[in-house]
């Protein structure tokens, strides 16, 4: 099996012995940050592109900024595969998320939940094609962090229950426009399913663990921060942001928490869910 380029670096780093005491804690802290940054590579590059083009992209360019972002996202994806910075399995996850995200984008923009204020040629309906890559970035992160930290799980629910929950969450993103919003019930169902579940992750040589529900919340929080940067960069606009940027409502954190569950379950359908040794 061919390693990705980071896998080779990771193996070297894990063979290094920093000693004990504060040196060990500092080394593990820095190693954790490096691994997380590498897992976020696709999303970080996309976010950097959004911000950079917002600040410096010429207004009179013949290529619309949104179209440039679409082509750049495709180029990043191709480059990561060509240089073995990610696996084909992870690329398949990105494709699934792109499709799932674009379908939801088409509905949400039609319902007026948010808008894309700039022109584009590469779009479907009112949705520029680069938008699907923003969902793909979430899937890419989960798939990559799963491999990089060698995830194991204890007390993981039976797969059909997690798939049923993910399906209910996805349907509610659409159905709440016509019927009652059942997200509070979905939060309760998620807590009931995952309250005992621990994710075990290997940072250096030994596996550590945290409650999986806490992990969902931490990632959702960082996505909410990223969304603030993206809306500042005029990637899209929520109602109330038309006349000037303001921070995204904290209520969106709950939406991202639920989306994290969908994302995790989709990746779990492709990645092996293994128990600790």
Description:
The chain has 10 helices and 5 strands. It is mainly α. The strands form 2 sheets. A 3-stranded antiparallel beta sheet has the order 3-4-5. A hairpin with a 4-residue loop joins β4 and β5. The longest helix is centred in the middle third of the chain and has 23 residues.
Question: Could you state the order of secondary-structure elements as H and E?
Answer: HHHHHEEHEHHEEHH
Strand order of the largest sheet: 3-4-5
Structural class: mainly alpha
Q: Pick out the low-confidence regions.
A: none
* Individual helix count: 10
Task: Output the radius of gyration.
Answer: 20 Å
Sum up the overall morphology in one term. globular
Name the helicity range: 55-70%
Work out the number of β strands. 5
- What separation lies between the terminal Cα atoms? 22 Å
How much β-strand is present in the residues?
Answer: 5-15%
Short description:
The chain has helices at residues 5-15, 22-39, 41-56, 65-82, 88-110, 130-148, 159-175, 183-194, 212-232, 251-268; strands at residues 123-124, 127-128, 152-154, 198-202, 207-211. With 277 residues, it is mostly helical.
């Amino acid at each position: 099996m061919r390693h990705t380029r980071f896998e080779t670096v990771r193996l070297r780093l894990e063979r290094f012995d920093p000693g004990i005491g504060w040196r060990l804690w500092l080394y593990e802290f820095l190693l954790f940050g490096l691994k997380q940054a590498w897992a976020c590579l696709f999303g970080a590059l996309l976010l950097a592109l959004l911000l950079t083009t917002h600040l410096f992209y010429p207004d009179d360019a013949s290529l619309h900024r949104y179209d440039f972002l679409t082509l750049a996202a495709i180029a990043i994806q191709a480059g990561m595969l060509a240089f073995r910075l990610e696996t084909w399995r992870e690329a398949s996850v990105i494709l699934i998320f792109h499709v799932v995200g674009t379908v939801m984008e088409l509905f949400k923009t039609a319902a007026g939940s948010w808008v894309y204020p700039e022109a584009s040629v590469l779009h479907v309906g009112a949705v520029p094609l680069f938008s699907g890559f923003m969902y793909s970035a979430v899937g890419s992160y989960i798939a990559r962090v799963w491999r990089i930290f060698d995830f194991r799980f204890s007390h993981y629910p039976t797969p059909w229950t997690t798939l049923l929950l993910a399906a209910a969450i996805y349907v509610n993103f659409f159905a709440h426009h016509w019927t009652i919003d059942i997200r509070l019930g979905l939060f309760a169902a998620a807590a009931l399913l995952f309250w005992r579940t621990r994710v075990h992750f290997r940072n250096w040589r030994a596996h550590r663990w945290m409650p999986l529900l806490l992990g969902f919340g931490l990632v959702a929080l960082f996505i909410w921060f990223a969304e603030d940067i993206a809306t500042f960069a005029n990637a899209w606009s929520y109602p109330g942001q038309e006349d000037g940027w303001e921070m995204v409502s904290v209520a969106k954190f709950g939406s991202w928490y639920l989306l994290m569950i969908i994302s995790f379950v989709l990746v779990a359908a492709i990645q092996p869910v293994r128990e600790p040794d």
